[in-house]
Amino acid sequence: MDELLEQLVEECRGCTSQGKVATYIPELAKANPEELGIYVLQSDGRHCQAGAYQKRFTIQSVVKPILLLLALMDNGEDYVRARVGVEATGKPFDAINMTDQTLFSDHINPMVNMGAIAMCTLIKGSSYEERFQRLLELTRKLAGDPEIRLDEAVYLSEKRTGNKNRALAYLLKTYGMIEDEVEEVLDCYFKACSISVNSKDLAHIAFVLANRGRLPQTDERVFSRRYAHYVNAILMTCGMYDGSGDFAVNVGVPAKSGVGGGIMAVVPTRMGIGIYGPSLDEKGNSVAGIQVLKGLSERMYLSIF
Amino acid sequence: MDELLEQLVEECRGCTSQGKVATYIPELAKANPEELGIYVLQSDGRHCQAGAYQKRFTIQSVVKPILLLLALMDNGEDYVRARVGVEATGKPFDAINMTDQTLFSDHINPMVNMGAIAMCTLIKGSSYEERFQRLLELTRKLAGDPEIRLDEAVYLSEKRTGNKNRALAYLLKTYGMIEDEVEEVLDCYFKACSISVNSKDLAHIAFVLANRGRLPQTDERVFSRRYAHYVNAILMTCGMYDGSGDFAVNVGVPAKSGVGGGIMAVVPTRMGIGIYGPSLDEKGNSVAGIQVLKGLSERMYLSIF
Amino acid sequence: MDELLEQLVEECRGCTSQGKVATYIPELAKANPEELGIYVLQSDGRHCQAGAYQKRFTIQSVVKPILLLLALMDNGEDYVRARVGVEATGKPFDAINMTDQTLFSDHINPMVNMGAIAMCTLIKGSSYEERFQRLLELTRKLAGDPEIRLDEAVYLSEKRTGNKNRALAYLLKTYGMIEDEVEEVLDCYFKACSISVNSKDLAHIAFVLANRGRLPQTDERVFSRRYAHYVNAILMTCGMYDGSGDFAVNVGVPAKSGVGGGIMAVVPTRMGIGIYGPSLDEKGNSVAGIQVLKGLSERMYLSIF
Amino acid sequence: MDELLEQLVEECRGCTSQGKVATYIPELAKANPEELGIYVLQSDGRHCQAGAYQKRFTIQSVVKPILLLLALMDNGEDYVRARVGVEATGKPFDAINMTDQTLFSDHINPMVNMGAIAMCTLIKGSSYEERFQRLLELTRKLAGDPEIRLDEAVYLSEKRTGNKNRALAYLLKTYGMIEDEVEEVLDCYFKACSISVNSKDLAHIAFVLANRGRLPQTDERVFSRRYAHYVNAILMTCGMYDGSGDFAVNVGVPAKSGVGGGIMAVVPTRMGIGIYGPSLDEKGNSVAGIQVLKGLSERMYLSIF
Predict the structure, then answer these.
(1) Residues B231 and B68: beta-carbon distance below 8 Å
(2) What CATH number does the domain containing A261 carry?
């Protein structure tokens, strides 16, 4: 299988030229668009990898399922579902999905920015710094990597330029979905997006979701089977933004992408996959990452459909 | 398992009072809201059933995946994908998903009305009557039921009152997605929606999708594994209209509902399920049908996530 | 003043190259984009003209205020206002101004297509042919031109290609704003748009609106002062589609444009103006016509603001 | 005429019960809904008044035309028009008028919040405090009232609760229409809205617009005839929010309302009118104020149409 991964990485590297690295956050623009890496962790304990799988990058939107998990673990499903919906928005990641003059909780989704910002207010902590630390701890635990830390430069860059997210957060505040200070909530959100990970980390986190809540090796349960179903289902319907439908058809597994170039793909009961490929298509998904996953899905019959 | 089905039907019959039967087509308003039936066909050949599983009703939107299948079989995936998109619209079944003054094929989806009407123009036939007959034949074959026929009364009722669908079709015509006469295309669509089936039929059709294109018993291949992936993936992301997200979280299998009260649920590799329960929630899905499927999914671990 | 008009026509003819003739109806595409004509009728009885003022063209949307007038004359203001709103839509002429799944009468406007189609159902007549004949009679009377007639070729062209209008009409039917047969209503609407007029006719019609309901020469009252206020006010806020704001700022008088190249401008108490210039800007307004009116307004202080 | 005003105020006071005072800013909720006052200044120098015409209230959105005037005076028409559009939005005052993911300057209007916030960045000053002081000076000059000052309590109340405006401002920042610090721009905007005026002040400001830029008495020119046309035209098409169409039909003069209960109405060449009536309809316009203006327009033939 190492060989298959090497081969896919070689085949797909070419298509990195069809996309481009994110530039809306100045720090992200520094990425090398040609890099591509993959790490796969299987349920029998084997792991394999190819390319730039050790390269660190910021997690960006791939943190959204972890935020959702922590919100579920802290509050239970009913509480979370009542505050943030689960339907696909049919719109880009930073869309304002408002019906005329009102914002309904059913219309915000934890996998797009507005829902993820709302999620920050649901996780527990006496301060937003503490909330972020708890999120960071959970990320380290799921990834089995105590080295995971905040990328200060990206965080400061996001904080300085994140005006669309500020607009979204003030809309949430306007309609009663944020009670705390908007800048504090956003600070937690910008930090969450700026956690630095590598493909191996994403593969491990994906594995726990594929393994319905249990860590590899120790088999320790971190969250319930029910929460795995909840998160994986949302990843399937909305994890790849407005490219989720094509991804479901062509790859057929729950996944989440981020503008840092990461993709985390969950193959229920079978494997966790982490990808790094910072050249993005117009929807914000890793161009080469999707190609690698498509090839892997075809050759290893990964589609759950 | 018969016992489990009986029990679920009993438990869920109560919630039929939370919904109501469709009234926008006069013929549908005649249904008995308290009826509830289920039929399950498993991969080992066993089948079980409970309640009004023999009751005939019109297939309505559950015909959409069959239309999509026939379009794929007639034209191949690339041709179909270029003309009708696969993203969730995030909107109700009869929504007009236009961006300002333009309609993009990527914004129409085969599981909502506009996309399904476009699908009628893709299936082959020298006339729209012939196209409908080919669809009817495929439906009979997938269901293994040569008795399936058109419900003339519902068809005429739809034809007379289907003005929203006319509006959608004329928009498709305006933007070049329909070349033929709108009324002929609609005639085929209204007939397609008025095919009369029962829960057993839906279970058989779902089984072929679960079995990736092969019929039960004979194991004859009707369509490719690839098309099963294609259709099942779209059912997962958009099969239950703007209730698809909750259904994915709570039941976790590809499914399609219709305003006639039917639900067809596909449990890949394992089973096909057909439901009849004409009392609908506000999104147009069978209230009790969803409850039965939720119960069955929990007790039999059906979620593919 | 004849001299001023000649001069303006010469000055503005150049800008016809900035636009293009309408092509969505095949017959309209045959117009000569460089033609430009103007006719002015003043309250003291003088009239002056320049350029192609005798050229006949189809009235298109300039018929909308006449439809509105006839609806008011037939039903009174309250009845009409309850069925068709008066607010600017902020959208193009053929926009679908729906709030989610509902269409409110307050959101349709008599100066855009949906509202004008609804208006056809409000005017009286035992058949839609009779309704059209009554509209034609009123147009002839206001223009003082018994020669005005239907352009059959344009009418048939519109009827054959008017699918967007069919879509709009079926939406009106869906939401109860049309009770009669859609094709009959549309037939009346397509005929109304295909009335053949010249700039002189438009100037006379505009004059009656400027003169608050009285014909020139005879001073015969055709409609009440109140209806003149009603129609002129709507022309000011929405007569030039989504270019109404710029027109109000730059010209400052009520006006209505049509894709046939006509503009009818009303200078209350002072004059009626008719323009022909078939080269249109992207909003569907005559490019040169607006320039001529701007020049005339500046030099003769026409702005009512 | 004093008698006519007294009579209209008496007649219309009853309809104050059909509306309610604004509550979204806590300070505004303290107003007495039954108060009603009017002040009229005519071109022959006469003035008349009735009811609570001396009552001070915050100017709120009635400041928007003054902001627009100052932006025009500071930068010229071309500069302002290139940055803020003039079309009616067809939407409520605090609507987000975005086309998908982009915000076009042509889609923001100086009479709704987003455009008015953008206007604050166009007026000149070395600080936003200075910009506000210049606006305050212009307001005093137009009103001929050096007593006009900021209502600190309302300003602080707006600043504390104005989250929707913060969202709008961050959207403007996102799309490059604000370069300065959002909170500084908003501070100027909140102060602008909190200027305390009375009906007499509004009548005087309206008079200068009606008099095309010249003060009463001295006849000193404060701004050009052209800017009066520009501002009055926009007041006509969008000054009464999404009630502008009905107001144009029923009253027929340029006007601007504010949620503080004020209305400023401009009768070109004839008079300036100021109204105070804090009971608002659902669109945010003074219920009784509109009734008084309607009565006055009918009896004194004020409609410019």
Answers:
(1) yes
(2) 3.40.710.10
CA distances from A55 to A257, C264, D80 (A): 16, 68, 49
- Point out which residues pair with C48 in neighbouring strands: C40
pLDDT, tens digit (0-9, with 9 covering 90-100), for B35-94: 999 999 999 999 999 999 999 999 999 999 999 999 999 999 999 999 999 998 777 777
Is-contact C48 C283, C-beta < 8 A?
no
The DSSP line for C67-117 is: HHHHHHHHH-HHHHHHHS--S--SS-TT----BTTB--GGG--TTSHHHHH
Chain A positions in Cβ-Cβ contact with residue B234 (cut-off 8 Å): 245, 248-249
Q: Is D241 a catalytic residue?
A: yes
**Range B288-303 burial, b when 16+ CB lie within 10 A, else e:** bbbbbbbbbbeeeebb
| pLDDT of B99 strictly over 60 | no
Token pair, residue D293, equals 């203006």
Q: Kindly indicate the confidence band of residue B95, based on its pLDDT and cuts at 50, 70 and 90.
A: confident
B237 touches chain A (CB under 8 A): yes
- C241-259: pLDDT as tens digits: 889 999 999 999 999 999 9
Rounded Cα distance between B245 and B257, Å, is: 14
Domain boundary among B141, B168, B195: B195
Find chain D residues with C-beta within 8 A of C76's C-beta: none
CA angle, residues C236, C237, C241, in degrees to nearest 5? 100
CA pair distance A186, B27, nearest whole angstrom: 53
State the ipTM, two decimals. Answer: 0.95
Query: Does C305 reside within a domain?
Result: no
Structural domain of residue B218, as residue ranges?
A: 2-60+198-300
The DSSP secondary structure of chain B, one letter per residue, reads -HHHHHHHHHHHHGGGGGSB---SSGGGGGS-TT--EEEEEETTS-EEEEESTT--EE-GGGGHHHHHHHHHHHH-HHHHHHHS--S--SS-TT----BTTB--GGG--TTSHHHHHHHHTTS--SSHHHHHHHHHHHHHHHHT-TT-EE-HHHHHHHHHH-HHHHHHHHHHHHTTS--S-HHHHHHHHHHHHTEEE-HHHHHHHHHHHHTTTB-TTT--BSS-HHHHHHHHHHHHHHTTGGGHHHHHHHT-S-EEE-TTSEEEEEETTTEEEEEE---B-TTSSBHHHHHHHHHHHHHHT----
Q: Is the pLDDT of residue C97 over 80?
A: no
User: Closest to D88 (Cβ–Cβ): which among C97, C232, C244?
Assistant: C244
Q: Does C283 touch chain B (CB under 8 A)?
A: no
- Confidence at residue B97, expressed as pLDDT on a 0 to 100 scale: 66
To the query of whether residue B199 is one of the catalytic residues in this protein, the response is: no
C95 CA: distance to closest CA in chain B (Å): 7
Same domain as A94, residue A185: yes
When pLDDT is averaged across residues B214-231 and rounded to a whole number, the result is 96
Question: What pLDDT sits at residue A51?
Answer: 96
Catalytic residue among A63, A84, A259, A266: A259
Identify whether A259 is a catalytic site residue: yes
Q: Which residues does chain A have within 8 Å of residue D163's beta carbon, measured at their own beta carbons?
A: 170-171, 173-174, 182
Residue D267 lies in a domain: yes
Q: Which of B168, B195, B222 is the last residue of a domain?
A: B195
Please check whether residues A76 and A190 belong to one and the same domain.
Answer: yes
Question: What pLDDT does residue A216 have?
Answer: 95
Count of CB atoms within 10 A of residue D175's CB? 18
Nearest to D249 among C90, C233, C248 (CB): C233
Distances (CA, A) of D85 to A101, C27, D113, D209: 22, 34, 13, 20
- Percent of chain D whose pLDDT exceeds 90: 87
Chain C CB contacts of B92 below 8 Å: 100-101
**Interatomic CA distance for residues C278 and C33, integer angstroms:** 5
Read off the tokens for A190.
Answer: 């910008």
